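pasting input
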Amino acid sequence: MPYGPHTPADRTRMLEAIGVASVDDLFDDIPAALRASPLALPDGQSELDLAAHLEALAERNQTNLVSFLGAGAYRHYQPAAVDQILLRSEWYTAYTPYQPEVSQGTLQSIYEYQSLLAELVGLDVVSASHYDGAAATAEAALMTCRATGRRRILVSRAVHRHYRETLVTYLSGGDFELAEIPVVAHGPAAGTTDLAALERLLGGAAEPVAGVIAGQPNFYGLLEPMAEIGRLSHAAGALFVAVVEPVSLAVLAPPSEYGADIAAGEGQSLGIPAQYGGPYLGILAATEALVRQIPGRLVGMTADLEGQRAFVMTLRAREQDIRRERAASNICTNQALLALAASVYLACLGPHGLRDVATLGAARAAELEAALAGVGAGRLHPGPYLNEFIVKVPDAAAVHRRLLDRGILAGVALADLEPDDPSLANGLLVCATEVTTPDEIRRFAEALGAELGGARWA
Amino acid sequence: MGVTGPRLQQTLFEKSRPGRGGGKIPHPPKDALDRLPPAARRTNPPALPELNEPEVVRHYVNLSQLNFAVDTGFYPLGSCTMKFNPKLNEWAARLPGFAGLHPLAPDATAQGTLELLWELEEILAEISGMAAVTLQPAAGAQGELTGILMIRAYHRSRGDADRLEVLVPDSSHGTNPATASMAGFKTVTIPSAADGGVDLAAFRSALGPRTAAVMITNPSTLGLFEARIGELLEAVHEAGALAYMDGANLNAILGRFKPGEAGFDVMHINTHKTFSTPHGGGGPGAGPVGVGPRLVPFLPSPRVLRETDGSFRLERPGERPASIGRLRAFVGNTGVLVRAYAYLRAHGGDGLREVSDDAVLAANYLKSRLAGTYDIPYERHCKHEFVASAATIKRLTGIRTLDIAKRLLDYGFHPPTIYFPHTVEESMLIEPTETEAIETLDAFADAMITRAAEASDSPDVVHEAPHTAPVRRLDEATAARQPNLRWRAMSGAETPCPD
Amino acid sequence: MVPQDLRYTKDHEWVRLAGDTATVGITQFAADQLGDIVFVELPAAGSSVTALATFGVVESVKAVSDLFSPLSGEVTETNPALAGKPELVNTDPYGEGWMVRLSVADATQLDGLLDPAAYDQLIAEA
């Protein structure tokens, strides 16, 4: 065993102290009929061989493409300090801070995370982290049901498909209803949540609505009329859940300004690598009125018995280890190390740096829009966007594949991700961030122009 | 409140000075946001702290030194499996090919990761004796939800919609009943038998046409193998219910007991416990779920599939309609799974069996050392962990488990899990793991024995511990009565850009 | 010795009946067992409660416990002081730490509850 310390003499000494002849005797309580068949697994590898094997696997992934992929996970520059901090053993080899006297590092870092995120979203109560943006959104939906005593959720069709699917799964457990709010099909508001439809869904004889969920920016990259969605929700006695992307909050109005009661979202963009889907950072924040409904750990400031400032997990009685079947959620392990990553990232960038990240992404996206329009690929929707948008390309899925052969990852072919939505069949969802270069934009436009057989990039 | 301890740190917000920082990101064109509608834009900037890199680094390095961690000392936290986290795993997860891969990367560009995930599923299926495995759940509790929702879908698919109860023993993890509630089931709690195991008769009388599932942790939360598990599984299946195994303690039985072979229908695996992916101060983990043949159709989507040409791909949206759907966005906590894969490949079959052998050996050794000083409520051989109790010490001296736990901090040991399981008075659940040398086990046993003596000789010292930790015991009541959950001081005013 | 003018439940609630108004709280024994109480969740005025059914929840730092109503009736008032100072349940459980007032139609319900001697015996055996 590669990491075991025991010499044969150690083992003998332990067996003698226990008073058994062999380790097998310690397993004699497993009924004979139930003992395992031998493990049919390959032999263990030396570190040298294993490192080579892992490197070879990693190299089979193509991560050096010119990529315009976003759709819920974003490429950003991670300041070098972030990973250096994360690699300190004191962070990543510690457990949940159940013994606060020897966990003040973790506890203060979580308190600071809660504070940093509270500044970004404008809501006072931020949970110590959830699994990811989709799971956090599902928890937000369940919160609205607990808080209102109602059981019906409305979610905008323009929220990420994976989030909507996660909502279906989480809500399938209880006696809940979930309905989608359609998006506007035509005109200047095309691709945003249909306010008239929302009003119809909120009113009428149907079951009263607990929560309304919409994203800012939405999955298509568009800016939603969040204030109106919030007003309509509140008028019907429902709570309003905003699905947010935290980098954008450096420049976009925070959820508190448009009346959101809960903010949920994916914190991966705060300096966390894409790593094929996780571990990411589920953000969940709420107004103070909802503090007892929020699931997950919370850290509070207090004092020790000598009056020193100190931090501790608090409002614990909401959690599964105490409340068991009546807990707000079953969450236990969370994404603490990713919350730390986000905090170090924000501390390294500061308010100006974060604004520059968001703004530079928006600038690159506008350049991308112009370049793609120049080769005949215009946007699907006319409304304002921040750094992500859909372009219309005939036979988009096939074009997407051919561009891949040219080393260009042309965002998401929506025919693959949303096969049942014909309005998106010719769409490529593309994104630019601060790491997108003018040269990459030029190469994308050139290749797309060649594929479309239209005007060449000059 | 003071912040005067030698290692305590002011918050980032207190250290902030307008005009510090900068240099990380090029400045964008000034008019870049003019195309956005003013109503959608932020009027006041977020009041994030302004610091330069040296201050940030010093802040976090100093904070880190306030933590106890596996890499700083012995951490025998029962049920949590605080074993050594191999450094190769951290290196592997950071390889650019793994770390830089976008979750929506086309399958053709993700073959390395897809192969790794597929192979990991096969390895976990072999270890658990299950027919198939999903890697999607982000943690053990989400794995439980996945498993219980699959059980629900199974019963419904058979038109068996009246099974609304989940039976759990009273010693179970809190996540079990909380999961049952989230999945819409009523929890029925079954008391344990006198020997700490499942009470077969009590289960038999609670089982019936309303039972959807039984959730069992094996080895149990007392660190004991459920010797009556065969009879229990038979009774569960006779009643038409399914058996869920909480795999939190899988690290005790690798190569010795395969839950799927024994008859469990579904189980979750905590990679951060059994397979050494680190705990990260509370997360992330990963909670793969293995299922027997009956539940395979209901696995979450997408699954990783191997094509006949040997290439790998993800299931497409809607490809398998019986699936319970998604528990989260994208594929899973892949970065965690890379670490688990590295650990599994480093050990191989024989190495994994040795992991459990050594974990069980260490726990029984430590138990033998503490017997006579502490109450050992269950005398039989334990698996990877065991329960000790300070009940007698409390009766004789007034010193409680909590006090002993805090006093251990003064001697450089993390305390065991305390007051869990709830079924034992003044309990401590002690899990040494397989990566601790006998010298460490002896030093811990000596410290425990000396603390027991101290409880009689100088109880005040014990009662007021810790004395040398960064802070003393905390006022948790005020923290909960008047929660202060965020820093608030700054204005969010526009400040000059540092560069 | 517990207060002699009250009746008790085996779940450690007390009740004082004056006319048709019953005042309800938890006993000193219960408060001590729970430790530092940090939150009390009570029903809204106007709601009705049923004898021996749960009517609220009391939380301490590390435990949570249901509150069981000694009597059936309608909630006329909840103790407003507990929202800001839940510790009153620890410091003065029979006085300032009271929880709800009920309007009770049937005073004979009291007969089903423990008298002080019986409750004293219950906690002596606990």
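fyi The helical segments of chain C are 28-34, 81-84, 88-91, 116-125.
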